[in-house]
Amino acid sequence: MQVTDVLIIGAGAAGLMCALTAAGRGRRVLLLDHANKAGKKILMSGGGRCNFTNMYCEPGNFLSANPHFCKSALARYTQWDFIGLVGKHGVAYHEKKLGQLFCDHKAGDILDMLLDECAQAGVELRLETSVSEIARLEAGYQLQTSAGLVRCQSLVIATGGLSIPTLGATGFGYQVAKQFGHRLLPTRAGLVPFTITDPQLKALCTELSGTSVEDCLVSCNGQSFRENILFTHRGLSGPAILQISSFWQPGDTLHIDLLPHIDLPEWLAEQQRERPNSELKTLLAELFTKKMAGLLADSWFVNKPLKQYTPGELKAIAAQLADWQLVPAGTEGYRTAEVTLGGVDTREVSSKTMESLKSPGLYFIGEVLDVSGHLGGFNFQWAWASGYAAAQYV
Length: 394
Ligand SMILES: Cc1cc2nc3c(=O)[nH]c(=O)nc-3n(C[C@H](O)[C@H](O)[C@H](O)COP(=O)(O)OP(=O)(O)OC[C@H]3O[C@@H](n4cnc5c(N)ncnc54)[C@H](O)[C@@H]3O)c2cc1C
Hints:
It is built from 13 helices and 21 strands. It has 394 residues and is of the alpha+beta class. The protein folds into two domains: 2-188 and 334-391, 3-Layer(bba) Sandwich (FAD/NAD(P)-binding domain); 194-331, Translation factors (Elongation Factor Tu (Ef-tu), domain 3, Beta Barrel). Flavin-adenine dinucleotide binds at residues 9-15, 32-35, 40-41, 44-46, 50-51, 130-131, 158-160, 163-164, 168-170, 172, 338-339, 366-367, 377-380, 383. Flavin-adenine dinucleotide is lined by residues 9-15, 32-35, 40-41, 44-46, 50-51, 130-131, 158-160, 163-164, 168-170, 172, 338-339, 366-367, 377-380, 383. Keywords: FAD, Flavoprotein, Membrane, Transmembrane, Transmembrane helix. Its cofactor is FAD. InterPro entries: BaiN-like, BaiN-like_dom_sf, FAD/NAD-bd_sf, RsdA/BaiN/AoA(So)-like_dom, RsdA/BaiN/AoA(So)_Rossmann.
């Protein structure tokens, strides 16, 4: 039987940060993962460049049934702390936009940095190892793993959420939480594209698949995001769509302002005065791709020279472009979602230590908890911050 101070299950973003920090404090740390490689999601993230944090990270960038929970950890390990670590390792990075920091070269630079820190601190990393049983002892826990029995004082669950099962995601963390009497909040896919089945809308999306519209304002349930949207074969994606998906519930209507930077009624009236013989599709081609302008002019409106539109018709065109309303059929689900919303109820976990309030010595960090960030590096910042917080106490 192996005996260790700290056993961390899940060598993803949160588990790696917790391991290197706890080992840095002099704790004996064993980090287990059932996958054949640590940090698979880090490697896939940010289109292969890992959007590892956000310069403007604040508690307001996170969703949770308990919105205050994330504050303490985020304040004790900030984006600047992680940027400092990245700088120490000489990893080249840049701001893409909106404070989002990406590696210049590859996401692997962040994973190598974390693995290097783990190795230097003496973390024992064991891959391709699964856990079949967990028992609580008087002090600590005993686990049956595929590599034998392990005893530890502190057990950290860092197994993430359900998103992208092909990258090793499982519901393991939720099962452990349940075993030790924790409440789970319903889980669903977040930061995920929408699917559309309405035949007319679907035809539009398929025709425009690959077309991006810059600077749209997408709103739902009192939340709005201003960013690009992208048409796909199956529906809609792009940053503004992914963001709003975390606030959408089945049956809800999305409101999309395709041109929030233009006062449309005034602009259309002005164009009608200045170029009365121009057709609507010619005018729209100055705002969208030619193909999209043609499709909108023909399928949403009746295309004709501007002078032939009544003021009421122009008003209706402006209203439709500024408030395109649609009800998605659903989302692409965990297959492509960047995060899992919901999870272990944070009201039963200490916001200071990440320790279970139900079972001493048991800790939950990262995405397995009911804390999910907006798109833009916030989810990794939560993984770093919660992993760091737990590491001070394990
Ligand atoms: C495609 C994609 C791109 C993303 N891009 C970004 C981005 O650019 N910026 C950003 O901030 N966020 C991004 N995210 C979100 C981010 O990756 C996650 O929020 C973050 O990885 C969560 O960290 P975690 O350590 O809690 O979980 P994970 O990183 O998912 O790690 C969990 C680990 O636990 C292991 N595990 C699971 N079950 C078991 C088990 N039963 N036994 C043993 N081990 C187990 C897994 O193999 C995995 O290694 C992206 C997500 C995806 C899917």
